[in-house]
């Protein structure tokens, strides 16, 4: 078993045991029902004690089991970025689950009635910061070694261009699921705005939703599809249905290119993943075009016919060197 999975399994069992065993020890000091939700004015929601404690356990156990299944049966731990995201997610959510359960118990402890339970906002903020720090530390410790580099002497794919021949490669890809999810989000925000305009929702809430609607729409259009074009000028990546905005990578910046299969579970999900020097534009799992920069970093783009695009890039680089 992968040591990361073993650690996550043991740690997850400890978290589960704590969530199950500690609340019953405090049962006599907790109100029933107990406060489970707080608003600006204090506690404004409650649940029976057993239901609240069961929900706390499920909130942790379900994501934990999904994470274990992904690691055992998927490709999530194959690449370094995937290991970072996976370890960080498990650590972050485990600390959040323990923290949410602990703060709720402390807020309800020894109060005569659930309406008297108090949960300061500073406690919630501190919990999020601690969980984020735990996630960052786990991601760093669990990152493992760098991804395996191509074997020494391995030649990337390359086309043979006739003297004077000019060739252009263009490929386009879209993800209908990302489009559907984005449209659903935009539709929901649109309803909120309409409700605000007709007076069914406070104007402040509608005013907040309007910029969120615009941002969601822009992000949805930019991340649901892309077009890649290789020519003598280098690689141009156009985002969205209109191919704009465009990111251009000059041929002089590229060391080599090659095709490789990568999947969302290996890079932390769909969309833009990673950071400068080790980024991935992931719209769907499978064939990707990998660009290695002369500066040492790389960029991965999920795109169809990646092998042909990589071959043309390498041929153009070789042609420039010969000149």
Automatic annotation (TrEMBL):
Highest taxon of source: Bacteria
Transmembrane segments: 51-72, 84-109, 121-141, 177-198, 204-226
UniProt entry keywords in alphabetical sequence: Membrane, Transmembrane, Transmembrane helix
Record's protein name: DUF1648 domain-containing protein
Provenance organism: Nonomuraea jiangxiensis
